[in-house]
Amino acid sequence: MGKVKLHWQILIAIVLAGIAGTLTGTEGSILGIAFVDMYDFIGTLFMNALRMIIVPLIMSSIIVGIATIGSGSDLGRLGGKTILFYAASSTIAILIGLFFVNLLSPGIADGIPVGEQLNLTLDSGEVASAVSAVEGRGGSDIVEIFLRMVPTNVVSAAAEGQMLGLIFFSLVFGFFMTQIPTKQSEVLITFWSGVSETMMMITMWVMKFAPYGVFGLVAETVASTGFAAFRPLLFFFFTVLLALAAHAFIALPLVLKYVAKVSPMNHYRAMAPAMLMAFSSASSSGSLPLTMKCVEENAGVSNRTASFVLPLGATINMDGTALYECVAAIFLAQAYGLEMTFVTQFTVVLIALLTSIGVAGIPAASLVAITVILTAIGLPVEAIGLLLVTDRVLDMCRTSINIFSDSCGTVVIAKSEGETGILESPSVAA
């Protein structure tokens, strides 16, 4: 498979995994070892390797990126552009989700809320576990998101995967590293540059095993849940997919074409490996190494811009997640028969935007964020149990959108900084 492009290897792995998972199911075994356990072992081993490199990669990338930006004014300009783009893209994503969930009304069938049909109060072990994970959470968690940005212990933040705090520390460290005397500054820059280059080499080595890791991850999911698990919520499922598709194939390409003035098709080709990796792993952070590789090598964006914009986006720019939160909350409201006034829907939009900023650092991830919304509009948190049926596949889809939006933002910002040669070659993923 050495001569085959990585994204094709991953795509082949996904297809083979779907076939293998379907054929073996949860009961298939060889020599007394269940196939599903083998899939889980392969997938877990690969994801552990990715998680191993995330913290040093993000820290070194941001610190070096800040150090190479230059003056404080340059940093402020680049940071301002990044935050502005991410806020705008997330808002657009939420509004698209709001449009489709109101247009299609998946929570209503024949004019009747579907809550009773779907048995929202079902208390299975899985549902009970999910409810327990978010029990007692509410609007105060929004404040905690921002408090998490300033960690009391950066080592603990790194160990616990609190990426918001880690990114904040890296930004501050990188900036003040350039303010000390030149001699000491050069030593630190050389050190962190060495760490960054080493981590990229380790990343490239780990990514050689991506097709095998993807196979394990997808095969385990298919073997465990199959495809029939999605049927009870098919309408909701496709509403989310349609909204995500509109954002990925209409909104963001328009931004690329008319704001960045680059070819959307070239960008799709450039980002294909990273999007497939994000789809299979359902992890924006886990996909970051490959996203950075694609943006720099395939799209032609400088390391200076990519190392600043992408790690920040992997934590605070969650377009797919924000869209999903909005659709899920309003779907449940429809299923319960709750009248969604303009004020209520505006509340959903605002909270979805705020919670998506730090959703990756919250226990139970999107479920907690959705719970914050449900609490705000007066719905029981037990309703999140309904979402577990389709959450895995939708999580895979929205993660792909998350990293694609990050990459679009990087291209837009790079073009605004006067970079040239971006996405000019159509051969990036042939």
Strands, total number? 4
Main sheet properties: 2 strands, antiparallel
Strand-residue proportion: under 5%
Strand order of the largest sheet: 1-2
Task: Quote the distance from N terminus to C terminus.
Answer: 15 Å
Q: Briefly note the structural class of the backbone.
A: mainly alpha
Would you list the SSEs in sequence order as H and E?
HEEHHEEHHHHHHHHHHHHHHH
Q: Which stretches are poorly predicted, pLDDT < 50 over at least 5 residues?
A: 126-135, 360-364, 426-430
The CATH architecture assignment turns out to be: Orthogonal Bundle
CATH C-level class: Mainly Alpha
Overall pLDDT score: 78
Fourth-tier CATH superfamily name: Sodium:dicarboxylate symporter
CATH topology: Proton glutamate symport protein
Give the count of helical stretches.
18
Rg measurement, Å: 22 Å
The number of domains: 1
> Which percent range fits the helix content?
over 70%
Shape type:
globular
Describe this protein's structure.
The protein is an all-alpha fold and 430 residues long. It has a single domain, classed as Orthogonal Bundle (Proton glutamate symport protein). The protein has 18 helices and 4 strands. It has helices at residues 6-24, 35-69, 72-104, 115-118, 125-134, 140-147, 154-159, 163-177, 182-207, 210-225, 234-260, 264-281, 288-298, 303-316, 319-336, 342-357, 365-376, 391-416, and strands at 29-30, 33-34, 108-109, 112-113. The strands form 2 sheets. The chain has a two-stranded antiparallel sheet. A two-stranded antiparallel ribbon has the order 3-4. A hairpin with a 2-residue loop joins β3 (108-109) and β4 (112-113). α14 (303-316) runs antiparallel to α18 (391-416). The chain starts with 5 loop residues before the first helix and ends in a 14-residue tail after the last helix.
